[in-house]
Write a structure and sequence with these properties.
This protein has 178 residues and is mostly helical. The protein is built from nine helices and no strands. It has a single domain, classed as UraD-like (Orthogonal Bundle). It is an enzyme of class 4 (lyase).
Length: 178
Amino acid sequence: MTNHPRAAPDPAGALRTLAEAPAAEVTKTLLEICSSPGWAEAVAAARPWADREALLAANAAAVAALTVHDLHDAMAGHARIGEPKAGDTASEREQAGIRDADSALLDELHRANAAYEAKFGHVFLICATGRTATTMLASLRERFPHDAATEAETIRGELRKINDIRINRLLDEPSPFI
């Protein structure tokens, strides 16, 4: 593989390149944003996207249409809050708010995560970007009393926000296709 210099950001070019890429490449890229194959297929099927807003609208529509199984697929791609996946730059970047948390707070977050996972059968999903460990723990506690249906709808909203951030980052960074 040749090491090419990274091109300057070109949001319109990145969108066009993604929209025109072979289906397998589009799906692979989309699965890096969200690990639900159902989501990736739905977003890819909305090609070509006229602009960023159209791609973000495809994300919103795809998230709204996810089945419970698809939601579980999406959550399976996310690290437990307080435990970013080592070497996963998205996970580490998105959970940057836990870096300065003390061990007592992280222990509390770990216990709350375990209780949530025992109740709902999946990780606690929250858009962690810009949040501290304290605010994530407070949100976890606030959502714990939800029933499964209410929590699934909350997860849809959080997943849409996470995907929007990741899509925008993909479009704003130097082209991944170079």
